[in-house]
Write a structure and sequence with these properties.
With 321 residues, the protein is of the alpha/beta class. The protein has 2 domains: 36-126 and 249-317, D-Maltodextrin-Binding Protein, domain 2, CATH 3.40.190; 128-242, Periplasmic binding protein-like II (D-Maltodextrin-Binding Protein, domain 2). It has helices at 2-29, 47-63, 78-85, 99-107, 140-149, 164-176, 188-196, 207-216, 262-276, 279-287, 297-317, and strands at 36-40, 67-71, 93-97, 117-126, 128-133, 155-158, 181-184, 202-206, 219-224, 250-257, 291-292. It is globular and about 65 Å long. 45% of the residues are buried.
Length: 321
């Protein structure tokens, strides 16, 4: 009898240990159970940084945890991107991607490809504009005439060698039949400072960085590189409507190191989609001159692959690869 009771107690103890271990394991695997780092590979205060931090505040609500934003600049976004590519695929390190994420892959200079990441979601499109100080030029014809009369003397800033705004500037200049000198910066905030300080003559840049200056008349926009006029800048014509076939803009989205556990990927996918469609985010984005745009999962991955094909063609045509 005593032996039976002892055996029974041993079984109960064993079950208790197993249940306790199972409960601890379940708690350990719950995602997210700690803050998440979002790496923005551009300078603080620029258009992408502002948009990313705003979106992250809504993503935090959906995930129920803190998102710590870290700016890791350099190499036209490739330094921060490479850092995330090397991180553990556990869902606690995310990357804000832009057009230059794809360009770095095409140029094969940074040691990563888009296949090194799990594509999760996009949250905004980033129209490109070509701006100058209004005190220097206030018509596109005057700008073209000056550039043609002084080949190579007009300086145009962009966000890094081979980056989206470098590509956009080269395409626009080719369409206008002019030759300028390109000056690289690590992000739009630095481009803005250079233009306002008279260190450069023009900038190919995200429109939301310079929208207020265009509206106030301090800057003149030669044209928007979109199919239709930007809603926030209804008086600014596109290059296309002025006879220059230049449509070239960026985007913003979220990716993670490839190999996320399925449950973590699905949690992030659901949260990102919900945040991107949150009415409060949509309202705040429009007020902040951010254009919301959302595709998710495999659709975002397909978009990145198509963009890679297009960038390869453009960089080849421009002699940049």
């Amino acid at each position: 009898m005593k032996r039976t009771i002892s055996l029974f107690l041993c079984i109960i103890c064993l079950l208790a240990v197993c249940l306790s271990a199972t409960g601890c394991s379940s708690k350990t695997e719950e995602y997210p159970s700690k803050p998440i780092e979002l790496v923005i590979p551009w300078s603080a205060g620029g258009g992408t940084d502002v948009a990313g931090r705003l979106y992250a505040s809504y993503l935090e609500k959906e995930l129920g945890t803190t998102i710590n934003v870290t700016n890791v600049t350099g190499g036209t976004g490739s330094v921060g991107t490479a850092q995330v590519a090397a991180a553990d695929p556990d869902g606690y390190t995310l990357l804000l991607t832009t057009f230059d994420f794809v360009t770095a892959d095409v140029q094969q200079l940074a040691g990563f490809t888009i296949d090194d990441f799990d594509a999760i979601s996009s949250f905004s499109v980033q129209p490109t504009v070509y701006v100058v100080m209004a005190e220097n030029w206030n018509t596109i014809d005057d700008y073209i005439a000056n550039a043609k009369a002084n080949p190579g003397t007009v300086t145009v800033s962009h966000n890094g060698e081979g980056g989206v705004w470098h590509q956009a500037a080269a395409l626009a200049d080719a369409a206008m039949g002019i030759e300028t000198t390109y000056v690289p910066y690590d992000g739009s905030s630095e481009q803005l400072a250079a233009l306002l300080g008279g260190h450069t003559d023009a900038a190919c840049i995200s429109y939301n960085t310079v929208a207020d200056y265009i509206k106030s008349g301090e800057m003149f926009c030669l044209g928007a590189m979109t199919d239709e006029r930007i809603a926030a800048l209804p008086d600014t014509p596109t290059f296309k409507e002025q006879g220059y076939d230049v449509v070239y803009s960026s985007f913003r989205g979220i990716v993670a190191p490839a190999g996320l556990p399925e449950d973590v990927y699905n949690k992030l996918l659901t949260a990102c989609e919900a945040a991107a469609n949150d009415p409060e985010w949509l309202d705040a984005a429009v007020k902040g001159s951010i254009d919301p745009w959302n595709i998710n999962g495999e659709d975002y991955k397909a978009f990145l692959n198509t963009t890679k094909e297009n960038v390869t063609t453009v960089l080849t045509d421009l002699g940049l690869i």
